[in-house]
Amino acid sequence: MKNLLPTILLSFMFSISYCQISAKLMRYMDVSDTHIVFVFGGDIWIVDKTGGTAIQMTNSPGEESWPKFSPDGKSIAFTAGYNGSQNIYVMPVTGGIPTRVTYKSLPDRMIDWHPDGKQLLIGSPGDNGGRRLLNQFFLVSKDGGLPEKLPIPYGELASFSPDGKKLAYITKITENYPFKRMRSGNNSDILIYDMVTQKVENITNRIAIDGKPAWAGNTIYFLSDDNDDMRLNIWTYDTGTKAMKQITDFKDFDISYLSAGNKDLVFEMGGDLYLMDLATRKYKKSRSKSSQ
Q1: What does the alpha-carbon distance between residue 224 and residue 188 come to, in Å, rounded to a whole number?
Q2: Which of 19, 41, 45, 118 could form a disulfide with 54, with the two C-beta atoms 3.0–4.6 Å apart?
Q3: How far apart are CA 229 and CA 207, in angstroms?
Q4: Is pTM, for the whole model, over 0.90?
């Protein structure tokens, strides 16, 4: 028995292992002041933004997607297919039972929190004739209720200005197309909608692919392949000077996704997850692992 004890203990020790999570398998990442949230294997995970062991927050037959931190970082809103249709749910970052927000039969996409922390911007197919299959923007209370449609014909992804008075958005998602480095009139542009004047301004207005806007401070960050290599890199648009600038120069792989918090930008490139400090615009790899 004494000879077996070390063997038993050794077997137990090796049964608790950790594995690195490949950023290639992460989807829909977002960042708060302290954490990164992402989807892995159809479930929502959360990890300290400096890296470490990721904690699985959901475990259900239904698939979750598009998680977004609330402005105070205390809640996560997301899309989930728990009841046959894709609806919006909210849950605390500490975990718990999600609260259902929408009950539409058509699929809803979680897009962004309003800066007031009380409303959610969602995308859902419209109900008017030929635009039925195109997403339109709606605002809905995080506690539920009837969604209110914004007076924008259609849109896919968007990000609020810090004061909530403007919205940077795109009308189609072309940066995820399987064919790359295309130049056509079907490519997306970054538009700004003024919630007060209800006017729209095209801030990129070029034939390149521009997508995934993320508004932080006085800057709109977005992906664009407007460079000699036609690789999707991060660009900035200064809302004061209206100047555009490319701030990353990856040549081997496209950046597949980005999202901005109050202090950081999180993005995926070539199977690695990166965190960019918005104050210095310096970035580094962020490594996460899960316990198995």
Answers
A1: 10
A2: 45
A3: 15
A4: no
